[in-house]
Amino acid sequence: MDFQLLEQRPSELCFPQLNSSCRKPTLHWSKAVLLTIVLFCISLITVALNILVIISVSHFRQLHTPSNILLLSLAVSDLLVGLLLMPLEIFRNTSCWVFGDLICSVYWYLSGNITSTSTGIIVLISVDRYVAICDPLHYPTRMTVVRVKLSVCLCWFYYIFYISLYLKDILIEPGRYNSCKGECVLVINDIAGIIDLVIAFIVPVSVIIVLYMRVFVVAVSQARAMRSCVRAVTLQHSLNQANKSELKAARTLGILVVVFLASFCPFYCYFFVGENVVSDSSAFFVIIAFYFNSFLNPMIYALFYPWFRNAVKLIITLQIFKYNFSNFLFSV
To answer: 25-327, which class in CATH?
Structure first.
């Protein structure tokens, strides 16, 4: 029995009728309300924007390309972040956890699975751009829609298996790390933390950096070559236009990768130097910053992809319900 908890006034406890109850969060109610409103608005916008991405790529046949299939898969994981992970993380840190130990374990499992899958998809995006820029002649045969879909499915299944092993303790025994009722925490032991650091952070980030460094070098050389070609026949002009399109896509997806790493690195750096306890307020802001990446991704599409802006206009104005509008041609 925790005598310190018994000394608290009942109004300060999550469950006053239980001796093992946790204390209520100490954040002032006005700050808690403001923080909750702001973060829930971000969550709703994240859901709405990623639904628009999913509808756009799924509905319009012109957008059924390997690169866009990867963006579609990333949008699905971002949608789940905004729909499930953000609200539960907000609730977990601004009020007492009332959903029970089982839902707590499910939350941590989904959090690990969805965010890890996003990392895998970013790796696939880097591979896609690497092949498109560094080996453009073989790109149509190597990066087909079928192969990309298969790669995405394997990515999801791999991380389902990996996270099941990584978090097997809380899946077998939900709530094993909770010290009192009304709490939802995750404790990561040192060995599991090091393994996860290597598998989910060092390896994929290294692959992403190496591939994009290669893409950057080749893109710069191609840009210089195009600028040096003053005279060009029609065929050469069309090839240059294709190269410019690929370079533009590489630049946009490069921004996507940089933003992802900017959100991803603090998350792992914090838990690497911290005590591996996912419970305090500083951990909350690191996790929210990581989830915030799901809000930024569709913003990047809106800024740099004309097809996404045009598709959103068609969706909002309900023109997609017109006959044969799935064959609408976009300027990409």
So the answer is: mainly alpha
